[in-house]
Amino acid sequence: MAGLTLEHLFKRYDNSGKKKRTVNDYAVNDLNLKCEQGEFVALLGPSGCGKTTTLRMIAGLEDITKGNIYIDDCLINDLHPKDRKIGLAFEDYAMYPPLNVYGNVAFNLRAKGVDSAEIDRRVREIAPLMQIEDLLEKMPVKLSGGQKQRVNIARAIIREPEILLMDEPLSHLDGKARQAMRIEIKRLINKIKCTTIYVTHDQLEAMSLADRIAIINFGVLQQFGTPTEVYDD
Ligand code: ADP
Ligand code: ADP
To answer: Nearest residue CA, atom 16 of ligand 2?
Structure first.
């Protein structure tokens, strides 16, 4: 487990030739945020406010225009994504259709050259946490939306990340499934005690899950506090 610090973080996309989409062209504008070890922080804000860009910079999938990112006291700006000990559960990160759930969960460890006995040990440890034991032999096309999400999160946490980043993990679920999965996530996070950043545009989701909520608008941090602090104002 580790803390995460964003220090004067800026992102400016090169939109040359295109219509300006952001204030001053900054998708992320002087963002300062400190997440304590084991804390669950929700990044809340309307579509286009810079949430995904922030996660992508933390993960190393997007260049930083200016600013610093630390895991504990370690500056990670120049670390390769693979060396960041960050787990990503992004909705657009599709599973490999020809592999069953086990293969998908194991994939990143296989790619890293972890031996199969160790992979098997970790899959068997994580499967009950995510309640996917009965799904391990299934192919991705046979899974429901909620099952896919659980597998996605299993893929992220099997790498034993210090920081877990989730980008709208419930966005394609509706009604009951959404509420059930929210409870699932809460249960899971309590168990794995990973420092987590959770992106959502849903205030209810943020309030019911997060230790603290960071409200972002036009790339600018507007408020950061516990749900009570943020909504009592
Ligand atoms: P959110 O996740 O809050 O919906 P994003 O981080 O996806 O917001 O986007 C923030 C801003 O950056 C938006 O104005 C968006 O149009 C712009 N943006 C996102 N990705 C790119 C890109 N690859 N190139 C140019 N502009 C982008
Ligand atoms: P690779 O060539 O291994 O895919 P990348 O730089 O694309 O390397 O990604 C580095 C790591 O980040 C990969 O191990 C992958 O698991 C993860 N990753 C990349 N893109 C995404 C994404 N959209 N969602 C979740 N994880 C991702």
So the answer is: 108
